[in-house]
Amino acid sequence: MKLKSVEKVAGWEYLSRYDVKYETPSGGEKVYEMFSRDPDITTPEKLLHPRTDAVMIIMTDRARERLLLIREFRLELGREICGLPAGLIDPGETVEEAARRELKEETGLDLVEITHELPPAYSAVGLSNEQCICVFGVAEGEIAPCKETGEEITARWYTKAELRDMLRRGETFGSWAQAYGFMWSVGL
């Protein structure tokens, strides 16, 4: 495949929509629709070098006996979904600063230790070029309701047995939370 051009179709506060024109191996031309957090993609080269936009926060208690999950009402689904705390990295913010801020905003908890930080990974391949960094660690404190306007989030600690039961019942999860929750709950 050969990228030919990138055209911004629409732009909003947090997302922009682009048409990416490319040539197929057989010489045909196609248009791929995508979204990006980057409001200023003007060339195929810039498309290939996305920035890291978000942080995903994977926290346990100190004893590693409970995993922190959130339940968040998602407008695009019309219901609550189980997920991991996450959010956008503000301009000038480090990954750690963003993780601390988002964890506090969404759960009321304090990030007390980062044990691992993975390199950037794509959040929604096939739809977007957004990259996210996963931060693993330990959180403590009292869970508090989310105070962010426009977000309906409640947080809770889950044991491995509770998580296995939720997965067995078919609880609605985001894919990252479901995959990590399964692996954590069965000891992989």
Quick structural overview:
The chain has helices at 44-47, 95-107, 160-169, 175-186; strands at residues 2-11, 16-23, 29-36, 52-60, 66-74, 79-83, 86-88, 110-117, 121-122, 131-140, 153-159.
Outline the biggest β-sheet: 5 strands, mixed
Total number of helices: 4
The structure class reads: alpha+beta
What is the ordering of alpha helices and beta strands?
A: EEEHEEEEHEEEEHH
Terminal-residue CA separation: 37 Å
Q: What is the overall silhouette? A: elongated
Average pLDDT, all residues? 94
Provide the low-confidence segments as ranges: none
Share of residues in strands = 35-45%
- Helicity range of the residues? 10-25%
Radius of gyration: 19 Å
Say how many strands there are. Answer: 11
GO molecular function: pyrophosphatase activity
Cofactor: Mg(2+)
Protein name: NUDIX hydrolase
Domain Nudix hydrolase: 50-180
What can you see in these coordinates?
The chain is 21% helix and 42% strand. With 188 residues, it is an alpha+beta fold. Strands 4, 7, 8, 9 and 10 form a five-stranded mixed beta sheet that branches. The radius of gyration is 19 Å and the shape is elongated. The termini are far apart. The relative contact order is 0.17. InterPro entries: Nudix_hydrolase, NUDIX_hydrolase-like_dom_sf, NUDIX_hydrolase_CS, NUDIX_hydrolase_dom. This is NUDIX hydrolase.
Features:
11 strands; NUDIX_hydrolase_CS; 42% strand; 4 helices; 3-stranded antiparallel sheet; single chain; NUDIX_hydrolase-like_dom_sf; 21% helix; Nudix_hydrolase; NUDIX hydrolase; 188 residues; 5-stranded mixed sheet; elongated; alpha+beta
